[in-house]
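Technical note accompanying the year-one report. For the benefit of new consortium partners, we illustrate the data format agreed upon in the data management plan: each record pairs a sequence with a structure-token string. No post-processing was applied to the example shown here.
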Amino acid sequence: MIGHHFTKFDPRGEGKTKFEQLLDVFMQLLTYTNGDVSEALDWMNQLDKEYELTNNEYGMGDFIDELKEKGYIQENQINGEIKITSKTEQGIRKKSLEEIFGKLKKTKTGDHHTFKPGGGDEINPETRPFQFGDTLEQIDFTASIRNAQINHGIESFNMQEDDLAIRETDFKSQTSTVLMIDISHSMILYGEDRITPAKKVAMALSELITTKYPKDTLDIVVFGNDAWPVEIKDLPYLQVGPYHTNTVAGLEMAMDILRRRKNPNKQIFMITDGKPTCLKIGKRYYKNSFGLDRRITNRCLNLAAQCKKLKVPITTFMIATDPYLQRFVQEFTETNSGKAFFASLDRLGAFIFRDFENGKRKTVY
């Protein structure tokens, strides 16, 4: 007999099953462990021991079995290694998006739409009468011929200016964005984890663009001693290395990527916590961690000026409070006519998302 199953109300569970509650914790831990399933499950067992996440009816072993059954993790039958699946990678991105957007206030701004018609790529279903200045490409000939037949009869074809119907195209502010993430060693110095918030922002931004703005593009570049692109699916595994900060390499790669993008609006977001300390000259790495090196900073400022000429604004999210570093970022920002935010770790996501959404309101013809 099919009936109703009643369970004890748990205000912390918000109506979720025990598996869903544990899955939320598991997704969070995977971001901190760089996608290492074994380490994340080890942490979960420690949390379970301290906070009693499971009970006699549903244990951690049941949770692991259900993770496998539902396709969140898969085990290598040869060496026993357990890895997350693409389903989990997307789940982490969605979780990051919900976490960051949950902190933002509701607003009607930030969408793609504009009230002005323009040279867009989506045809408006409605037509209007011809006006002086309309181009030949805007004429809807099918509707215009129908108007001529209605207005003048079908016996002798005669088309006049009043018969012409114009079909407009809706303008959409498509944007190509490059997100630069500093993965130098300073991102985990002094016991402060700065790379995890940066990863969460990158995963949330990628999920937002792929689901809400599919015609936009997002490329992610990480930079240490060198710079290289990473794919969206690789974000959970991103780690800090024993690197200096080669901001120049990151900017050069970001500019190269944007040159190949066809969208009219282009921008660079850069998340960094420290000063540029490295430059590659030929095969040699020129490094100086002791203060701002003029040779390195001048190259950064030159690239900022080049981006300004290419109409590519750079928005810098600085996770640092040192006054001399802030002065450099301000000079860098003024050179580019971009923007700078000196963001705390807990507000980093809100700053980036507000800036990205606000940029959607700009109209470029």
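Partners are asked to follow this layout when depositing records. Residues 34 and 236 are 5 Å apart (CA to CA).
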